[in-house]
């Protein structure tokens, strides 16, 4: 029985690792699509696409997955993919925005609606929660191995055209106007900085504490949405009880 138990423990860890890897690949695929869609699908002529491809390689993402995501943006294969956004409330009154990339809007809408319903949340109309978020450019630079002080990083970010910066022990977070993100990114790269993230995203204006009795339902909603292959990004305002210490 001990061998049987060990086997299941190993399988459990492997399944968890596979699920985590799948989520990482899912996000990178979205980033590849958007970078190729917004610019040239040839990475030689698209700095943002090169950045995402480098991240895909670092995550050991298979080449066929990278090529498939870029092909979607190029319209190769006949399928037409659209970006769709859904808005609603998770249990506990947490605002949620779901960004999806789909070739079948009816399928995706049904799946997203079911996820909210299963978890005790509610899907709302367009604009019902988006006003609670700000669209910003976000650039992240890891501090590990970086010999740059917080003051120097701030000066370089501001000189590059950034609006603001936050720092913790792990990384610098640089915020820009969405229209300036690409130029700030290129300037920082020209100064020799290695970027971990460079994207336009949605930043919540305020956070909502998830009540203790709603945590399980809240997690279920986020997990079900994340498991959906059509879902590219989830933006939400929730703070879980064990996240309180991490907030300023």
From TrEMBL:
It comes from the Bacteria. Residues 5-75 form the TACO1/YebC-like N-terminal domain. The keyword Methyltransferase does not apply. Pfam families: TACO1_YebC_N, Transcrip_reg. It is found in: Cytoplasm. Keywords: Cytoplasm, DNA-binding, Transcription, Transcription regulation. The keyword DNA-binding applies. InterPro entries: Integrase-like_N (IPR017856), TACO1_YebC-like_2nd/3rd_dom (IPR048300), TACO1_YebC_N (IPR049083), Transcrip_reg_TACO1-like (IPR002876), Transcrip_reg_TACO1-like_dom3 (IPR026564), YebC-like (IPR029072). Residues 1-22 are annotated as: Disordered. Residues 81-236 form the TACO1/YebC-like second and third domain. Belongs to the TACO1 family. This is Probable transcriptional regulatory protein PS396_05005. It comes from Limosilactobacillus pontis.
């Amino acid at each position: 029985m001990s061998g049987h138990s060990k086997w299941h423990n190993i399988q459990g860890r492997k399944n968890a690792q596979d699920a985590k890897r799948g989520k990482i690949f899912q996000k990178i695929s979205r980033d590849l699509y958007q970078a190729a869609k917004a610019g040239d699908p040839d990475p030689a002529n698209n700095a943002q696409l090169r950045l995402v491809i480098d991240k895909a390689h670092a995550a050991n993402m298979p080449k066929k997955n990278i090529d498939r995501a870029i092909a979607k943006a190029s319209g190769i294969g006949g399928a037409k993919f659209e970006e769709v956004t859904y808005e609603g409330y998770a249990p506990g009154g947490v605002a949620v925005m779901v960004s999806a990339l789909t070739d079948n809007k009816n399928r995706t809408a049904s799946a997203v609606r079911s996820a909210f319903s299963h978890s005790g949340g509610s899907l709302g109309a367009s604009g019902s929660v988006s006003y609670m978020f700000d669209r910003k450019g976000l650039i992240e630079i890891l501090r590990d191995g970086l010999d740059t002080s917080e003051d120097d990083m701030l000066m370089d970010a501001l000189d590059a055209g950034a609006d603001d910066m936050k720092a913790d022990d792990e990384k610098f977070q640089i915020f820009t106007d969405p229209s300036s993100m690409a130029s700030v990114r290129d300037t920082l790269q020209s100064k020799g900085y290695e970027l971990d993230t460079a994207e336009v995203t949605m930043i919540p204006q305020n956070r909502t504490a998830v009540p203790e009795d709603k945590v399980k339902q809240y997690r279920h909603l986020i997990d079900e949405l994340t498991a959906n292959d059509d879902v590219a990004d989830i933006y939400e305002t929730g703070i879980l009880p064990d996240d309180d210490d991490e907030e300023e």
